[in-house]
Write a structure and sequence with these properties.
This protein has 451 residues and is mainly α. It contains 18 helices and no strands. Bound molecules: phenylalanine. Phenylalanine (PHE) binds next to helix 1, helix 2, helix 10 and helix 14.
Length: 451
């Protein structure tokens, strides 16, 4: 029954690990994790997030890679074929389709934020932040998001960058980008933590991030922690499934999954440790929202030696991290068009990239011209972010767990996972069948106020 992918294969296990880590590590870790932590009061949120990664994230990461490698196609077609193998309903393909929609929604706001990072490469590099004050850093950020033209320009540049790589084919396009740049980002982040330790209020940051105050937990916090776990590991929409479909048969899925999850979590925590000491030292508001990282790190770069160089480098690497994630958001829909309509990749990506680009315009306008247009109290950007990450990814993840744990036969999943220890396999199965679905359902009931 072994299938092969028409899109090719990763050239080695390391390349897969780098690509999947490239997908996982991105704005979710460095931009979203610190600002959500700040909005949700700190350590209690961090703890919940870590719990979700371990109990739900890792088993689902394994499940998605496993389904992708067995299906060997884009999510929609993989679910269709796998359902056929197990004599299940063809309707499972709608699960893949929901992932494609979620991918467009995420990419639409993701590209706008990646555009901020691109803009900051030039702002920091030009030296305009030298000796800037707290107010100045905030004003600069607000001036940027207040200008629709500026946001549109950077959003467009970023989307074109993403489409070019997806159009070239993920392997040749992506392998080069991740091999050197991801490790460089990691090292620079450690240097930033070192700087924050020396000059910021490190003690306050540690206690904020790691001494939980459970009275700060609300229903919304729990839901956002779960959504962030999915978002950060790129789960629930088929990005990792698609990357799994290019994985060679002899790679160990459990080992690679653990490496990816550890790297992803480490980057998020490092970002928190780099940002919060600065936030407290300068008296910034932890709950100030999406601008938090940009404003706080600008202040750090403004006052550190060679800050102009470091700042510019940091935002270049952040852009690359966003880029390798955005590629994985656009890949499932593009691969589906190539399979379905036999289009060339370059042709397909013009369509998918354009759809995501147009949707992104709604997101960028919500910081300026449309800032008073609200749906249920949220602007377009916040609505996209909330519906895709806090609703669609967990629902997608729940259904993926049901498919992999309940609908797919034990023989198929154990054959594909090929775990050496039967205990390991049993643990995965229990987590996938019971813990992950129950976790998602409980969090939803809690968010709806039923629990
Ligand atoms: N994991 C990416 C990040 O943390 C975002 C992402 C979500 C990518 C879903 C692909 C799929 O930045």
């Amino acid at each position: 029954m072994a299938r092969s992918s028409i899109h090719g294969q990763w050239s080695s296990r390391w390349v897969f690990i780098l690509a999947a880590t490239g997908s996982a590590v991105g704005l979710g870790n460095i931009w979203r994790f610190p600002y959500l932590t700040g909005e949700n009061g700190g350590a209690a949120f961090v703890l919940l997030y870590l719990g979700c990664i371990a109990a739900v994230g890792v088993p689902l990461l394994m499940a998605e890679i496993m389904l992708g490698r067995r299906g060997r196609q884009s999510p929609i077609h993989s679910f269709e074929s796998l359902a056929q193998d197990e004599s299940l309903s063809r309707n499972w393909r709608w699960l893949g389709a929901m992932g494609v929609v979620a991918g467009f929604m995420i990419l639409s706001f993701y590209s706008v934020v990646a555009g901020w990072s691109l803009a900051y490469v030039f702002y920091t590099g030009s030296g305009m932040f030298a000796d800037i004050t707290v107010e100045g850093a905030g004003e600069r950020f607000n001036a940027m998001i207040g200008s629709a033209e500026t946001l549109l320009a950077w959003h467009t540049v970023f989307m074109v960058m993403t489409a070019i790589i997806v159009g070239r084919g993920v392997q040749s396009g992506l392998e080069q980008a991740v091999k050197y740049l991801m490790p460089a980002l990691f090292i620079l982040l450690i240097a930033m933590v070192g700087y924050a330790m020396g000059t910021g209020d490190f003690g306050a940051a540690i206690s904020y991030l790691f001494h939980p105050d459970f009275s700060k937990l609300t229903n919304k916090t729990v839901l956002e922690a779960l959504g962030q776990a999915f978002f950060s590991l790129s789960l629930g929409m088929g990005a990792i499934l698609t990357y799994g479909s290019y994985l060679s048969d002899n790679t160990s899925i459990p080992h690679t999954s653990v490496i990816i999850a550890l790297a992803d979590t480490a980057v998020a925590l490092l970002a928190g440790l780099a940002v919060f000491p600065i936030v407290f030292a300068y008296g910034l508001e932890p709950s100030s929202g999406p601008g938090l990282v940009f404003v706080s790190l600008t202040l750090a770069f403004a006052h550190m030696p060679f800050g102009q160089v470091f700042g510019c480098l940091f935002f270049i690497l952040l852009t690359v991290a966003a880029w390798t994630s955005a590629i994985s958001l656009l890949e499932p829909a593009t691969a589906w068009l190539v399979e379905r309509l036999k289009w060339r990749r370059r042709h397909a990506v013009i369509w998918t990239g354009t759809i995501a680009w147009v949707m992104g315009i709604g997101s960028l306008l919500s910081f300026n011209h449309w800032d008073s247009v609200k749906f249920f109290g949220k602007n377009f950007f916040d609505s996209m972010e909330f519906i895709s990450t806090s609703v669609m990814l967990p629902v997608g993840g729940l259904l993926i767990a049901v498919f992999a744990g309940w609908r797919m036969s034990r023989a198929s999943s154990s054959d594909e996972l090929r775990m050496q220890s039967t205990l390991g396999y049993s643990v995965w199965r229990v987590l996938t069948r019971y813990v992950a679905p129950a976790g998602v359902v409980l969090v939803f009931l809690n968010a709806l106020g039923i629990l």
